[in-house]
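Session log. Operator J.P. requested a structure for one protein chain; no other inputs attached. Running the standard single-chain path with token output.
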Amino acid sequence: MRRWYIPLATALVPALAAVFLLGGCGGKATDDANDGMVTAGKTKGKGKGDQEKGGGGGGSDRKAIEPTMDGVITGTVKLEGAKPDLAALTTKIQALMSAHQDKTQCLAGSESETTEQEYWIGDNGGVGNVFVWIEPPSNHYFKISDEQLKKVPKEVRVRQPHCAFVPHCSIVFTKYWADGKGTKKDTGQKLIIVNDAAITHNSKIKGGSPNPEQNPTLGPKSEFNYPAEPDPAEITLTCSIHPFMSAYLRAFRHPYAALTTVGKDAKDPAYGTFKIEGVPAGQKVRLSAWHEKAGFLVKDKEITLEKETKQDIPLAVK
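Structure written below.
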């Protein structure tokens, strides 16, 4: 599955370390300008009150963008410039696993669980696990149709089969705005964190203000439901017992988000591609893309949606 793979045995040294794809960092802009979802420079969460209000200014309602579902956004996130040192990153994480009391379980994971998690890169230069999404213009919101709600998966499950979160990145859509006042309704989706390993994990999850920290210890074969809210900040998932574990989620109030594809293997031509289907053609929106290490690749780029919109995005290693 991975690219430029360093064999496990050679990496052990004596001695963290993929529209509508639903289940995986950023000065300050106004809530209105960012629809309560994105801030400039460093990602920063809004308070609960801001999330629940329309945010259009002056107490006025936001205008609905109808769900015409007649457009699609496609593109590829490609590596630009120097490649990251994946071998060094993998050596580091495997050394940490080897030094841990749970090393037998940790090192029993698949290649994608025991190699570096920060960059997923194909032979085509495509970068997987990049979040790509759109937001409406100022004083607008996306109206969500019954047809769209029927397509929402009932669960997003993040597993811990060994010593890595699987998937590493996930998109969550648990709530949406039912009107221009910001009245929230449930989509029916739940975010479930699962420990399906034979060892204990501590699953610390935290986002911005709408998603305060929870830090449950999960014994083998146990799980918990985290009540994720739409959030301007990324949601991080870590394990205090195994500090080399990490995962990322983003929670939206609409389905217009995707993760770039992690290919079946390094040769997969689909590596780094994304597709957001059912977007409202003819509407002006703001496009953003975010990677866990590179931060925002694009932020609030104004575009007009067409029946077929193509947006290729470069990523430079940081």
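Operator note: The domain at 18-80+126-315 is CATH 2.60.40.420 (Immunoglobulin-like).
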